[in-house]
Please model this.
Amino acid sequence: MYQYLVALFAMLCCSICYGQTSPETTYFNPSIRKKESAANAYIGFYQKFISSIRGYECPMYPSCSNFGLKTFNEVNFASAFAMTSDRLLRCGHDRDYYSLTLSKDGFKFLDYPAYDTPPKDLYYSRNSYYFAYSDTITDPSPLAFIKKLINDHYYHEALLEIMRYEFQINSFDIDLFINKIICLKAIGEYEKALYEYETKCPEGYKSDAELAFQIALIQYKLGNLDQALQKTSLASVSCNDEFCGSKIALLDGLLHANKLDWEKAMQSYKLLGEFDSYEKLSKVNFQLSEEALHLKEKSPTVAGILSIIPGAGYAYAGHKQTAISALLINGLLTYATYSCFKNENYGMGILTGVFNVSFYIGNIYGAVKSTKRFNEQQKKSITNKLEFNSNF
Model:
């Protein structure tokens, strides 16, 4: 019976959702022990023989079929059934509530099961360009060439030249070291940059304002917000010019915003306004933080209660297209179940009834999760704007 249900559910996935032309292999969580599931065979058959000839691709990542494989392999059957039902209802709808990821097939809408967290590198972000740090001292020609490479965005080549120059001078140069950290940050070698800072930077230089600021940026990229704030605090002690102070205030505001401490973010942006060239940006970011402070969140409990009527909870969460899908699919399954029993086709009536219950529970579960997603997306939208304005 279990395998028969999964087979029918896989066929239902085929009829409701777009296919996936090639199986994804990175969505399984290695920390969760995979379960033996009949879904592997049935959904795998769909991916191999049906999806490719349909010529369509799922707009979500993981695709709905891979989402089903993931849930059936990692959680119990009932939970997987409900979560996959919810995903099928939401597939391709209300796209403003999802983050983007860039796959080999183009942009997709990132949507992992609620029990798991997507790897950070799946989130799409625009390219960042970094520039060399320079003090007021005239640079020797090798260092000038290194800075030109960095400013032209040849970070790997600049890093090679830095290592060659370090070998030649055989002494510590703070200007050179800061640019080395910038290069490592630019190519995403965050842990290596921190290792260089902790092991190769003399203690007396670690409080240098620019170096501490660059390390704070790296900690931010790694999501270590508290450590980043410690470094901005260290940087502010030795900061003695407007350029340095404005950067620290801007990063401080962004860090507090990501910690959802909007009042402290507002304080940082107010401080930013003390620098004449940043007065306009200060007002914009201050207003965004103030807007976030007064955001009204929607209640997951209310969404769950409203979902007694299929789709009503999704509509409350702002997922209007999904609400229509939930109402139509639950309505059709209810009618199919009723017709089967009316015509004394009890076997099919039981099966359609099981799907009806699954999509009904999925509708309640999904509405609750969609409300939480709506609340998170509101805050994330503001922090994304702040990050864009900060140009870090």
Summary: The first strand starts at residue 60 and ends at 61.
